[in-house]
Amino acid sequence: MEIRQLMYFIAVAEELHFGRAAKRLGMTQPPLSQQIFKLEEYLEVKLFHRTKRKVVLTEAGHYFYKESVKINRNLHSIIQNTKLIDNGMLGTLKIGFGPDYGTLTKILKIYEQHHPNVQLQLEQMPTAEQLMALEKKEIHIGLLPGPIKKKNIESNVVAEHPYKVALPISHPLAKEVGGIDLQQLKDENFIMTPREIGPAYYDTIINICNTAGFHPHISKRTHELQTIIPLIAANMGIAIVPELVNYFNREEVVFLPIKNCDITMKNCIAWNVEARSPMIDLFIELVKSIK
């Protein structure tokens, strides 16, 4: 049985006239009659009662018509969805992300407006886990500090955040609204994430402190950047954090600018070049166009 035979059958079943059905299909009546006969032969079922005056569906024909319409509808949907997938406009896009909720929210809001049929599967994970997931092709896109320097991972900067000093509100320097000279922090207890979790952030903070003439004393470590803030609120230390962490601000913590420091955290979208697809390409191009 061929798909076209179903289309021929539906036309005859709806017109109940071989001549009108043939005209609707853009063909002549003899080959149409032949195809319906072949379909009945294949099914070993009589689908129509034919007389010189009229064509009537048999009981089996009525059933076969209803099911054929469903098949036709489903086939149309399958074809349309196949085209959407081929154009990158249907499917599931897996995105890993870190603490930059502001940038993530901005990107997702615009992306969903353009591609409402794509399901977004989001998973929060540290930088190291995102890179591993990209390598293993477990996620399609990562939103993480960069740029990324790996041969099979490409990245594009989408946001830059200046670094600030986060202090407990009770700290003696908490009122230095004009900015902090990092030399004032050389004897402080720092809270940081381990290097294996986020090497870009860790190395940047060490570099900032070394440039200021000291190596930070790291008294506490936490596996997520945002969890540094409640530790500071509990007077367990201070931290140098990207401004994006303001998203998790608490009354007990103040964020102050750093004097003579123009280093920023560059957040990127990243992808595995060996796992490109139309859906990933569309996401990358859209994000690049966002100002």
Automatic annotation (TrEMBL):
**Protein name listed in UniProt:** LysR family transcriptional regulator
Q: Which family does it belong to?
A: Belongs to the LysR transcriptional regulatory family.
Q: Does the keyword DNA-binding apply?
A: yes
Residue ranges constituting the HTH lysR-type domain according to the UniProt record: 1-58
Tell me yes or no: is Endoplasmic reticulum among this UniProt entry's keywords.
no
PROSITE patterns from the entry? HTH_LYSR
InterPro entries of this UniProt entry? LysR_HTH_N (IPR000847), LysR_subst-bd (IPR005119), WH-like_DNA-bd_sf (IPR036388), WH_DNA-bd_sf (IPR036390)
| A Pfam family per the record | LysR_substrate
Keyword terms of this UniProt record: DNA-binding, Transcription, Transcription regulation
- The scientific name of the source species is Sporosarcina saromensis
Q: Which residues form a coiled coil?
A: none
According to the lineage, what is the superkingdom? Bacteria
Q: Mind telling me which SUPFAM superfamilies this protein's record contains?
A: Periplasmic binding protein-like II, Winged helix' DNA-binding domain
